[in-house]
């Protein structure tokens, strides 16, 4: 069974551009979570999608947005990139949320120059 | 004060040593996760606990709900165990809250 897959693995963008990150959950999982791990910081919750709807978001500006497709894959979009957006972005999936276990992808490392 | 605290922040050990990493939390939880993050950044879920104890190979995780504390133990540590170990709690607000991680280095 394929795990959670994220693409691309690395992304380099210029300040002001937009970045699009993609996540495919484990087959059968309906929830997708996005987390940001900035350099030297812990993981911070970004967004939660379930059944195509945004269910919750963390303390991030509206520049961070996303969507979930009918096949439960998800996109994270970051507009008007800033240098401090450079981070590892992790996606996790679960079967409909708590209390089921999460499976993490390997992440997309975004570098803004 | 962080809602999830881990200790120690950094840990070095000789191969074969018994290792303990601690996690304390201050919020109500439905489950606690132990995660392993390798230098490339990828995260592996090691355990999900809501009570008691779980064992997988050389790894043992325990949780005391009353004391709001969990421990991750590694027996007979090996250099390939070198990684960052992260405790995360599943709250009733539909998101995980992460500790800042414990960086473990095991030397041969």
Describe the fold and architecture:
- The complex is a heterodimer of chains A (113) and B (108).
- With 113 residues, chain A is mostly beta strands.
- Chain A has no helices and eleven strands.
- Chain A has strands spanning 5-7, 10-13, 19-24, 31-38, 43-50, 53-57, 64-68, 74-78, 87-94, 103-104, 108-112.
- In chain A, the strands form two sheets. In chain A, strands 2, 4, 5, 6, 9, 10 and 11 form a seven-stranded mixed beta sheet that branches. Chain A has a four-stranded antiparallel beta sheet with strand order 1-3-8-7, with no helix packed on it.
- With 108 residues, chain B is mainly beta.
- The model of chain B has no long low-confidence stretch (mean pLDDT 91).
- The interface between A and B is medium-sized, with 25 and 25 residues.
Feature tags:
heterodimer; A: 113 residues; mainly beta; 11 strands; 0% helix; B: 108 residues; five-stranded antiparallel sheet; globular
End-to-end separation of chain B: 36 Å
The number of strands of chain B is: 11
Overall residue-averaged pLDDT value of chain A: 91
How many DSSP H or I helices of chain A?
0
Count of helices of chain B?
0
Estimate the helix proportion of chain A, in percent: under 10%
Task: Look at the helices and sheets of chain A and give the structural class.
Answer: mainly beta
Which spans of chain A of ≥5 residues are poorly predicted at pLDDT below 50? none
